[in-house]
Design a protein that fits this description.
By secondary structure, this protein is α+β, with helices and mostly antiparallel strands. Helices cover about 25% and strands about 45% of the residues. The protein has 3 helices and 8 strands. A hairpin with a 3-residue loop joins strand 6 and strand 7 (about 110-115). It binds cobalt (II) ion. Cobalt (II) ion binds next to strand 1 and strand 5. Belongs to the methylmalonyl-CoA epimerase family. InterPro entries: Glyas_Bleomycin-R_OHBP_Dase, MeMalonyl-CoA_epimerase, MMCE/EMCE_epimerase, VOC_core.
């Protein structure tokens, strides 16, 4: 079951540079930064009420998000919904023929387990489902 929007992720060349708009112009706070080695990114989280903006910066030229930036430029990358059982959602969606990017749920930023659903199955937006662990 989907509980809430966990975060809205934006692909950026630099977390620190992109965060300046949110901190200096909107008065929000960059709460923390974290590297996610298996996705080759550094992410920065900005709390916005009950949800977050996640700034996603590639750490290597072969990071998937580096390809996204090269083709589309900085901008909305994915929306993440928090679920109560990520493994059950994974199995259910896979059985329903939904196109899933990851072979199985992965460890994500902020102590979560998560997987991505391909935009072809969602109407054009990359969607992440994540569970807090
Ligand atoms: Co995310």
């Amino acid at each position: 079951m989907v509980k809430k929007v966990a975060h809205i992720a934006i692909a950026v060349p630099s977390v620190d540079e992109a965060a300046r708009f949110y901190t200096e112009q909107l008065g929000l706070k960059l709460e923390r930064k974290e590297t996610v080695p298996h996705r080759k990114v550094t992410v920065g989280f900005i709390q916005v009420g009950d949800t977050k903006v996640e700034l996603v910066q590639p750490d290597t030229p072969d990071a998937p998000v580096a390809g996204f930036l090269a083709v589309r430029g900085p901008g909305l990358h994915h929306i993440c919904f928090e679920v109560d059982d990520v493994d059950a959602e994974f199995q259910r969606l896979k059985a329903a023929g939904v196109r899933i990017v990851d072979p199985e749920p992965q460890a994500g930023a902020g102590g979560t387990r998560a997987f991505f659903i391909h935009p072809k199955s969602t109407g054009g937006v990359l969607i992440e489902l994540s569970q807090r662990v």
